Amino acid sequence: MQINKTGFFIFWTPVILYAGFIFYMSSLPSMTLPVRFPHIDKIIHIAEYALFGFLLARAVKYSFSGLNNRRLYFIVLLSTFLYGVSDEVHQLFVATRVFSGWDILADVIGGLLGVYLFL
């Protein structure tokens, strides 16, 4: 697997910036969402991580030549899982936020959706 150095910087910058955005948003105190739609917070997690998964899949695919789709799915799955876990652990230190395994599951589903939309 060979690294494309030009694509590395072009495609990874949005991933890093968006990861920072996710971290920033999870640093804010939790908001009370209207209960018009049950589990709206999980839908938000899925949408948030779908974009993260899309950006991550694009960065990985264009940075490493010869990468097959199966490996791409695995890399994004593992990355979104680890980032989702780190995000939830981070929220343990934020007032009004809590750790949620269901949020991690929603993050991983969103990440996989992002890869699917990319391919």
Overview of this structure, please?
The protein has a domain at 40-119. The mean pLDDT is 90. The two termini are 19 Å apart. It is elongated, with a radius of gyration of 15 Å. It is mainly alpha-helical and 119 residues long. The protein contains four helices and two strands.
> What is the CA–CA distance across the termini?
19 Å
Number of helices: 4
**Strand count, sense and closure of the main sheet?**
2 strands, antiparallel
Average pLDDT confidence is 90
Strand count: 2
Radius of gyration: 15 Å
- So what's the overall shape? elongated
Protein structure class:
mainly alpha
Give the % helix: over 70%
SSE arrangement, N to C: EHHEHH
Low-confidence stretches: none
Main sheet: which strands, in order across?
1-2
Strand content: under 5%
Topology summary:
Blueprint: E1 2-3, H1 5-27, H2 40-63, E2 64-65, H3 69-91, H4 101-118
Antiparallel strand pairs: 1-2
Helix pairs in contact: 1-2, 1-3, 2-3, 2-4, 3-4
Keywords:
119 residues, elongated, two-stranded antiparallel ribbon, mainly alpha
Briefly characterize the structure.
With 119 residues, the chain is mostly helical. Helices cover 74% and strands 3% of the residues.
